[in-house]
Every structure is written in structure tokens, then in C-alpha cells.
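Deliverable D5.2: sample structural annotation.
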Amino acid sequence: MTPTSDVDAPTKTVQVWDLGVRLFHWSLVAMVAAAYLTEDFRKIHRYLGYAVLVLIGFRLIWGVTGSHHARFASFIPGPARLIAYLRDIVAGRERRYLGHNPAGAAMIVALLVTLGAVGATGYMMGMDRYFGQSWVENTHKTLVDGLLVLVAFHLGGVLHASYHHSENLVRAMLTGRKTLDDPSQHH
């Protein structure tokens, strides 16, 4: 339930994503993009990778201790709920969620796991034990390719939900606020 103190009565918006979630999200976007673009500058690339791992660590802690919509327990679906939601998307009848919808929640998990694995394999590449091991480098590159696919699906999901529910999810992730009612019901 959303505390009434978070509701802005004149605009009927509510604070959904707290500052921790928003700073994590946009910092992660910046660090991942910079790491991708600095692949040829190993030292910079490595430090950006470390920053991503620190951000993931923060998000894991914040996912347990943060505000209601930041907590994993409030939005990570079980398999049945996720499958039902995906079916509803295909049928064009998915319901709007104030926080993360089940598909978005599954994407968060997929992105965090993939980013963690990218960071772990990147770290391994610098260790004496794994230095020069082609399987580590190949795994790292494959994970990065997988990450790019996940990012594309994430962006597609944001665009789909924004259009289908007539709300700007990018703005909501910048401000942290969303309308209380479903804007798509006002057509």
C-alpha cells in the first residue's frame, strides 16, 4: 500500500521509485554505456566494471532495505504470475502496475544476474589464474552480447508499457512519480 504522505493531491501522483532506485538505475546506465564504449581502454574499462559491481551490491542491499517499491519482495513474481502476465501482454490486456510489472521485475533479475556475470568474468580476466584463458574472454564477450539483447528487450518493454498505459515511464524513472490511476483508462 502507498502511504498517503507520498501522494501529491493536486496532480494525483505518488512517489513510486525512491532516490536510491533512480540513482542506481541512471548510474548503471551511464557506467555500462561507458564501459561498453571504453573497451579498448582497459584501465578505464576495468574501473567502470568495478563501479558496476559496486552498484549491483548497492541494489542488492537496497532491494532488501529500501522503500516499498524498491524491495524485491514487493515486485519479483513467481513463475505462474510471470507467465500469466506475459500471456496478458500478448492478448493486449495486461494490467498496469504502480511499481514494476512482472515482466519488468523478471528483466531486473535477468539484468542484475547478467551484469554480475559480466563483472565476474571481467574480473577473472585480470587474475593470474585466468589471464589469457580464451574461455573466460569468450564467456565475457558472450555475456556482453546477451546483455545487449536484454537491454533491447528492456527498452522495448518500457516503450510498450508507456504506450499501452499512456504514461511516460522514462519520466517516472527520472522523477520517481507516477499517476495513481491508470491514464490509459481515460481514452
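Annotation notes: The longest helix spans residues 134-164. The two ends are 26 Å apart (CA to CA).
The annotation will be released with the project's public dataset once the embargo ends.
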